[in-house]
Write a structure and sequence with these properties.
Helices cover 32% and strands 20% of the residues. It is an alpha/beta fold. The two termini are 13 Å apart. Bound molecules: D-xylitol-5-phosphate and zinc ion. The site of zinc ion (ZN) has 5 residues, from strand 2.
Length: 221
């Protein structure tokens, strides 16, 4: 099933409530919530107080992308803040199974993210325990970067590994996702598209209209 996860860090902070209502009206599937610690990536993004305000304000699924070192410190925090899916990076710990289990014990869906430089075989053994694999199509940390086309083969590889194991896995792609990049990624096996400045938050169109059109494009292309 094709899903679109709207990247909240790309929304207009001064009109956040209005933008979220527009995303709800456009029946967007999820809110992609980027959390950065200034260490794993050289930047900061959304924070805990924002999520505290946001959780009672919307019933949209919170797809939390932790770009942080020491995810064990943050998994319980974001679980308490109302995350529905918690995704952390494979590059930050040798104890991936333990961390996935920690997310599951919080009653949340577990995702594992790979930077463009991390080989897909890395997560083969973990696939049966995961709800989602997030393949970064840019180096994480900043919005508005150029899509790295070499990542497409990783999508193919992860879909192939999941099918071999008979798993119905969500494969998400994040960074530079728009009308030029969705078709090859979808053909390769991606089904969750993180929509940021390259699509629904380009500033060229109203967010509601852009979200409706982009969702339809992802479904039909
Ligand atoms: C990159 C972020 C992405 C980003 C995607 O570190 O994780 O979520 O916001 O949006 P664009 O389309 O700007 O690449
Ligand atoms: Zn992200």
């Amino acid at each position: 099933m094709v899903k679109v996860s709207a990247s909240l860090d790309c929304a207009d902070y001064l009109r956040l409530e209005e933008e979220i209502k527009k995303l709800e009206r456009a029946k967007i599937d999820m809110l992609h919530i980027d959390i950065m610690d200034g260490v794993f990536v050289p930047n900061f993004a959304l924070g805990t107080n924002l999520l505290r305000k946001l959780r009672p304000a919307t019933s949209l699924t919170f797809d939390v992308h932790l770009m942080v070192q020491n995810p064990e410190t943050f998994i319980p925090l974001f679980a308490d803040l109302g995350a529905d899916i918690i995704t952390f990076h494979a590059e930050v710990s040798p104890r991936l199974h333990y961390l996935v289990d920690m997310i599951k014990k919080e009653g949340k869906k577990a995702g594992l993210a790979l930077n463009p430089s991390t080989p897909p075989e890395f997560l083969s053994y973990l696939l049966p325990y995961l709800d989602l694999v997030l393949l970064m199509t840019v180096d994480p940390g900043f919005v508005g970067q150029k899509f790295i086309p070499e990542v497409i083969y990783k999508v193919e590889k992860v879909r192939e590994m999941a099918e071999e194991k008979g798993l119905d896995l969500d494969i998400a792609v994040d960074g530079g996702i728009g009308e030029n990049t969705v078709p090859p990624l979808k053909r390769a096996g991606a089904n969750v598209f993180v929509a940021g400045t390259t699509s629904i938050f380009s500033g060229r169109e109203d967010v509601e209209k852009a979200a409706l059109e982009f969702k339809q494009f992802c479904e039909e292309c």
